[in-house]
Amino acid sequence: MRQTHDPYPDIARPEVFLGKFHAPAGKGRIVLERRTMRGVCRSQIFPEDAGKLARVTCKVPDVLFSPCSFRGLPLLLNFENINCLYVQLPVTDVNKRRLYDLMEEKGFPIPTVVTTDGARLSFFWFLARPISRQEYFKVFLMQHGLFELVKNLTPYCDTLSISSLVGLPGTINSTTDGYVGVITPWGSRVDNGFAETFLTGRYRIPDYKRLRLHSRAIPELLALMHDRVLLRDSAEDWLIFFAASLCHFCSTRQLLDELRAIAVSLEGRSWNQLASTYGRLIEDLSTSKLQGFVGNGFSIDRPDWFSLVAGKLRVSEEEIKRLGLSVIVGETDEFFSTEVGHVMPVGEVEFVPVERLFMRAVA
User: Pairing state of beta strands 113-116 and 181-182?
Assistant: First the structure.
């Protein structure tokens, strides 16, 4: 079955809208961001607390939210889950109809809901079930497949980034001086299996398996890093190994942010204090990923890459069993039988209470 109907008449209310993106029983938090003349101010809330927004968001300018749930800053390293796919197009008199016609022509369902902030049209396809951090590669592949499907409609490229944020209904876009609003009724959800098959069919099996392995390696590296109270490994090695897996899913700009967050977590100091030590290495890693290697000639495509990782980090049998490690110690089975151990947020904490985010004084 391709779609399941899930009507919701109050979808235009911000707390209801966010509740559809982030189920209360799910893990992670919604990231909220407000852009002002003073800079960027961020907050985060649990999905079950979204009801608080009904009283404070109306007519507040330039508030964005994360379609993904995160454990901290909006980074791939902190990704928890998502239950939708989305693209954004410029607002024109015909773009909404053009996209609907294209979906009918290609045989893909129409969006579940559409919003606009006066400058962009945001199209969301909600999935029948969320995709968790253990299967991030599926999010990456489907988002890129959807982008490829609508590329002739000139979609915005920033929606391909895991950290992209979207205007919150009920608030105001100060650039267009218009409300951010929901412009379609709540529609039907898309079956995960159908969406994955339809949107990822252009990838060859080896590419699919490679992305799957590196997607699993990221939380494994995080679990191992956080488990070691006193790190006995060099920070440079950790940055190289994280870069080797992250580079498959990140733009150069995104990879810079991810690796800086790793450096902050490794050293327990702010990036301003670490920039002189790790800035050059991280810039080199973020650039060299385009050539298929990271650091000093380490090929990320060599068959024994993960064996090299396990040996360099001296992963013990006890750590493998307790943390549920598999990929970074050379296991490449089709299905992973264990969950990865506890993973903590990475990066500098820079959130303010949600009530402060909506204060007039913030602007």
Answer: antiparallel
DSSP per residue over 68-127, as a string? SEESSSSSGGGEEEEEEEEEEEE--SSHHHHHHHHHHHHT-PPPSEEEE-SSEEEEEEEE
> How are the residues of the chain apportioned to helix, strand and coil, as percentages rounded to the nearest 5?
45, 20, 35
Structure token pair of residue 277: 């030590």
pLDDT of residue 82: 92
26 — pLDDT class (breaks 50, 70, 90)? low
40 has a pLDDT exceeding 60 = yes
Please state, as a whole number, how many other Cβ atoms lie within 10 Å of the Cβ of residue 342: 11
Other Cβ atoms closer than 10 A to 76: 25
Q: Is residue 221 within 8 Å of residue 271, measured between CB atoms? A: no
Nearest to 143 by CA among 85, 96, 212: 85
**Cβ-Cβ contacts under 8 Å for 120 (sequence gap 6 or more):** 88, 89, 90, 91, 156, 167
The structure tokens 């390293």 sit at 77
pLDDT band at 1 (very low <50, low <70, confident <90, very high): very low
Distance CA 216, CA 52 (A): 35
- 48-89 per-position pLDDT tens digit: 787 777 677 878 899 999 999 999 999 999 999 899 999 999
Element housing 235 (H / E): helix 235-246
Closest by CA position to 163, among listed 230, 50, 67: 67
Q: How many CB atoms lie within 10 A of CB 357?
A: 22
Q: How far apart are CA 154 and CA 128, in angstroms?
A: 27
pLDDT band of residue 358 (cuts 50, 70, 90) is confident
Residues 279 and 272 sit within 8 Å (Cβ to Cβ) = no
How many Cα atoms occupy the beta-carbon half-sphere of 86 within 13 Å?
27
Inform me whether the pLDDT recorded for 11 exceeds 70.
yes
| Residues 6 or more apart whose Cβ sits within 8 Å of residue 126 | 6, 20, 83, 84, 112, 113, 189, 190
What does the buried/exposed string (b/e) look like for 275-309 if buried means 16 or more CB atoms within 10 Å of the residue's CB?
Answer: eeebeebbeebbebbeeebbbeebebeeeebbebb
Domain boundaries, the chain: 3-200+349-362, 205-329
